[in-house]
Fold:
Amino acid sequence: MLKPRISSGFLKKIPTAFGAITSREARNRARRSWKASAVRELLHIRHNLRLLRAIIAREFLHNLLNLRFMIGLVLCLVVTVACIIILSHDYRQELADYSLRVNLQEEFLGKYALEGWVGQLMPGQKPPERFRPLIIGIPTSESQDSFYDDPLPILFPRLDFLFIVTIVMSLLALLFSYDAVTGERERGTLRQMISNSVSRTTILLGKFLGGTASLLIPFLLALLAGVLCINLNPHLQWDGSAWAELGLLLTASLTFITLFYLLGLMVSTWSRYSAVSMLNCLLLWVLLVLVIPNVCPYVSAQLRRIPSIQATARRAEEVSRACRETWNQRRKELVEQFRSKYGGLFSKLEALDFGMIVYERGDAKKVQELAAADPQFKAMVDDLRVEVNRVAREWRQAEGKATGELWGDLYTKAAAQTRLAKNLAGISPLADYVYVARDLTGTGLRSLKYFEEFKGEYRRRFGEYRAKVTAAVVAAHKNEPSPPGGWFLDLRDHPRFVFQEESLKGKLGAALPYWGILILFNVVFFLGAFAGFVRYDVR
Amino acid sequence: MTWDKKARKTMSQPGVGNALANSLSRDRPSTARVLGTLDLIVEKEIRHNLVSYKFSIITVLTTILILASIFVMYRDYGLARENYEILASGGGAAVIPPTPLSIFAKGLEENLCRAHEVGFGQRISASSKQQSVNDLFKLFTVPDLLYIIKVILSLCAMLFAFDMISGEKEAGTLRQSLSGSLGRPILITGKWIGGFTSFILPLFLAALLGTAFVALQPRVAMGPQDWARLGLFLWSSVIYLAVFFSLGLLISCLTHESASSLVVSLFAWAILVFLIPNLGNILARQFVEIPTVQQLELRRRQIAIRAWQEVNLLPDWPERKTRLERAREEGDQVTEDYRNRFDRLVTLSQGITRVSPTAAFTFLATDLMGTGMLEEGRLKNAVVKYMFGAGDKEGRDRPKFSYQRASCREALGRGGLNNLLILVLFDLLFFTGTYVVFLRYDVR
Amino acid sequence: MIEIKELTKRYEDGVLALDHVTYTIPPGEIFCLLGANGAGKTTTVNILLDFIRPTEGRASINGQDCNKFPLEAKKYVSYVSENVQLYGMFTARQNLRFFAELGGKKGLENKDLDNAMRLVGLPEKALTMRLKNFSKGMRQKLGIAIALIKDPPAILMDEPTSGLDPKSANEFLEQLRKLRERGKAILMTTHDIFRAKQIADRVGIMKQGRLVAVRERADFRHADLEEIYLTEMEAAENAP
Structure:
């Protein structure tokens, strides 16, 4: 076993240097010897850099002449171009569909915006993500929970750029590096290399840099072809921020790919035979890429149980029913109270079935006339109205609180489960990369949430606008009874729903922790490869 | 030793026809002797594999995966069952119990086990899936036995086979084996049988172990139909894995270095397992104009709103009824149109992606287990019929929704058998290819 | 100069690969190490190249300890392994250039490389031929070319003539003579008693890790080296 050793000459000089601080002559002597050592070190570094360059060039060229490079290049190009062309076409279709939906809504709003129905008609369609030609986004719950959903993607997950990087490139990276060290040993060239005055660190570094460079060529070429396709597409208008996001995505992808190259390198330095190394690499690949990410949500569902959605819905319904019962009870009590308080005056109101004040029925117009005529009557009616509203508010609050607690409990537990799943899956570099890539490009869960918040904010504004218009219309028709469904509202000037993506800073902030994990993996694997290589038996 | 390609070519076997004739007529060996030699090869192959690192790693990995997958999916089935019990106790909703076979092939089970109710505007609404609250389910695929077989085990099958010929050539043992009176046909057949047996046996045992575990659980009730389905599923898995094994062996015979075999095998695996099925589906979508689900929902909602608004203006009930009827017909037509397009899409998809054995196997397996596209279509039709076909009985008056999943025979009849035949065809194709190529393989 | 002093190597499983071996190879001498498989010949070379560490003793090249300062020591030595494989997809020139650069020779032009290769007797067409099409003899010659182009004071060779046809072996020995004339210290391990007799200045006979005998050229020029070899081996067996 060989133990690693640091370059000895320079470090040994330090104690002597300190000892010689006392006399001037000693100091001069020390200074000269320091200078000489420094120059020697610089020359040493320059020599090593030259060796490093030779090793990088050789590794690079050697990989290029290999069958796996050809196959990797062809595979990457074909898959990327096919993917992007098809997804661009998909994007065009979705964009057309989106425009159609927006127009349908506008048209409908123009014709059928009755007071009571506007709630059902509010705009807020999600446009297809601009990275759609590269990365397929996550379907919204609207399309998932419909009876008429499209379940094919469940059986066959769709192919996109993420697939190319996570499956194709990671496999290719392992294929390039699994025999980086074992192959050289088997060939005898490792012995030949080490018989020269070149440190193992230099060799390892050279293999890493040269190998990664050769590996990235198919990837970058494929990406270039893909970006060209995107550029040629007239429907795609990417602005500066989109290109910035693409650049960041590319960098994150590089981190992921080098991670797997280093993994293969590390396994290679801990094996003697290429066949063994290959099997170990593929075993690790299967575990990290295919198994762990897929198993984690299920494990988390077992560890952090959440109540059934249906059960919660049923319970919420029961709670609502109970609250409504209470409300009815309180209304009856209120009627009794007022009857005993106002006596005859109240019976007049009762005859008109309370004029829509207590229940949703009665002759409101008549009550209004009576109130206008008789101030006492009016006082009673106002009083009643206040009390009824108070009771209604109480009931609504109670119901809201109870159901809110139920749903809140569900959602808190669900969030805990999701968090656990996300963290568990973070062991797999694939999961980390998926989080980073989806967050950066706005095609992930974060952007869905962001969209929901944005939509909520818009609907609030829309609600204010609508209240204004409703008030105006009601005021205009204040002496007429409202028709069934309410008055027609002219909402032609309503604020338009224009979805603004989250700022790059926000997205980057969310992605950084997971990117950090990827970088950490890189470091760990490189150190692992280093540890394995310095003790590697080259015979 | 020169590596002149030309020299190699001129010295290889003359022609396929000649080679076949030679192999069949040489010495006219007796059946007993042939079988005896075959037996020898098979035994040597199995013994050799049993002590190899390759075998131990792949066996350990796959056994752990199979058992872990069955366990995880079994727990998931438990949750689904609890959910079903809650849903079924309340009235009005149409819901079916989860099938225990979903432990092995989840497929579309989450969709199938939703509660269906009639919602606003005569639209059938489906309840949200229990998994929808954990966003991470949307990012990754389900790790059921079907996934393990179609993705991971197929890779393992190719890894088992890729260096059976080229590796032996490099080691020099192929030359040694053929230097005697051993015929090439017997050698290659023996290698196939020995190799595949040593590969599939431990997996089969692991799968049986997992199945036994599931069957012994009190919560799991599997009827005779279910056992038949499971049996068929396991058999078709064996046929599916044989396809990849044969392909790996074929690639081994087409290359002369095991490193090249590895690269080509991985390439072929990636294309067959991932590329063709997934790209094929996206491609199918290009040829069938189908609106998105959002558009469909929007249209239906608008039809309903329009109808209700107009209804409020109508004075009496018969007119209102006709208006509502018309709205429902309109909605149904939109849905029908969508459904027809969707069926066309699925048919086209299946047609295109069948080129890959993985796609054929996925369709076959999910249909057999009752969690596939076939079942989905059947269930939706049944739900629609239940909701709107029972005269005008609403709410509690309606009899409870009962539904039987498609039988084995039906699953096989509606495309399942074709998919099975495709797999068998691939098997024959690759094995024949291997046989033919090996007859003129240069063993020097 | 190659110096081996009390070199001992004991493996973890107790096997004694080298047992207090001592000898020195001055510049301009070819020292052949003879012995059966497992005698310790390759172990000696491995220690000199710092592939393994000795249990006791010291190996040094040009005064630099091979295991304490391996990078320093390797500046002065070249290695020709038994089965020179190199990089099959590269041409002879590319292989030579790479290993020359590793050996510290920078800025070499094509003609320098070609000269080195011609010097060892490689035919013209081999200069730009891919290594996977080389015969064993040609590869061996390229191995020597790599050693030559570095021009170090010491050269280590591990079974260099095994598997060579007689003509190639003769050409190889011719190269060795030229190297000796240039004052290189050469350590060559071999089975081939015939070739050892032809080329060696001194011969060391190893058995089970011990250096049982060292014979000068004068001793075996006229005598039968094979007989000496077998006698010494027997004596070693009978010795306590």
